[in-house]
Amino acid sequence: MQKLIFLHFFLIFSLLSSANCNAAFERDADYYIHTLDSLLTRQSELERDKLIRIADIKDKKRNASSVFDRFMTNGLLAEEYSTYRADSALKYIDISLDLAEKSGNEEWTARTLISKADLLTSTGLLNEASEVMSRINRERLPEELLPDYYGEMIYLYSHLGNYAGGDTNEYYRRERAYKDSIMSVITPSHPDYLWYKGWDILGTDKTDPSLIPALRERLASSKLNSRRDAKDAYILSKLYEWQGDKENFKKFMVISSIIDVKTANAEIASLEELANIMFEEKQIDHAYTQRFVLNDDYGDGGDEYHCQNTHQRQENPDPFLLHPVALLICEIYLVDSLCYRQDTHAVGEITGLVKAIVDERIGMVDLLLLKHNICKLFKRCDLGIG
């Protein structure tokens, strides 16, 4: 009888949990965009919270007496700084590496070398990252470190492939091989299992019907305030994109951006990608604000969220990076300036240029011609520019 009662309550709890998971994130993408807009006005406050966390860890570091405690607090500082200020993160990683090597602890040394390579890769120092990874003897790694090792090799080779160009170079073949390697050793209990499972499926004919529900469930039960939460939302967004579900693709990209901003995470690839989505949808105000945030406050971070598919970005280049003058044109177009009021022909030309940019995503527009026309417009308005 007691077993039946227990089973009854267990089934009710399971159904309620499933209902809560399905009910989560039911609002449309626009709701989350407004939430993001609100957060972007509180950046200094959020950054202050991060600095308070860092200060707390530094207090613990000062009171650390054992080698273990010093190693752990340095690692925590490196982790906090890694998505905020790369040079400071590298400083604490090097301190940790020195402690690990002097103590003769091979596992600490390997962990720290992987962290250092990760940071170097995220900042574009790929040769240096390769040298760091070459110092690790894979055969001597403990089994629990193999997913971290293979994950870093995926990250490194995806970036090397991106710099080499093309879709089928040797670096991408090695990246694919390391993806196969990680899936052979990582278990479902590993914190990053869903992340790597997602990247293993994307761009292939592999399927796993349980993956999207698992990611949604984990996000629904989380506080949405950690780097892992942001990664879960990001890979979920990419899986929806792969399925052709544009609404959920955008929604979870926004949610990933919200988490990044909340945690003052400079590795804010989700916001970069969201800015491109807004640009494609011709929501230029949102695109400009998000791009401005990226350029102004988050220029020192890495690009971890793109680690598995950087080569896909070549097919959809960032219009802002290709032609920074596009931002200037959009601003001219949006601001009711003296030029607009005095010269209707200038208005027509500016409108035409902006329409070409929005419709053709800049790739079809010649930069020199744009520059020439902009200079003409400024001169015609007697602004003395160009």
Helix proportion range: over 70%
Q: What low-confidence regions span 5 or more consecutive residues with pLDDT below 50?
A: 1-22, 298-307, 309-325, 333-341, 360-369, 382-386
Structure class: mainly alpha
Q: Globular, elongated, flat, extended or rod-shaped: what is the shape? A: globular
How large is the count of helical segments? 20
Q: What's the number of extended β-strand segments? A: 0
Strand % is under 5%
Please write the string of helix (H) and strand (E) elements: HHHHHHHHHHHHHHHHHHHH
Quaternary state reads single chain
- Mean pLDDT comes to 77
- Biggest beta sheet summary: none
C-alpha Rg, in Å? 24 Å
Report how far the terminal alpha carbons are from each other. Answer: 87 Å
Protein topology:
Layout: H1 2-23, H2 29-40, H3 43-62, H4 67-82, H5 86-103, H6 106-122, H7 126-134, H8 146-164, H9 170-185, H10 193-201, H11 211-220, H12 227-243, H13 246-262, H14 269-280, H15 284-297, H16 319-322, H17 325-334, H18 338-342, H19 344-360, H20 367-380
Helix pairs in contact: 1-11, 2-13, 3-4, 4-5, 5-6, 6-7, 6-8, 7-8, 8-9, 9-10, 10-12, 11-12, 12-13, 13-14, 14-15, 17-19, 19-20
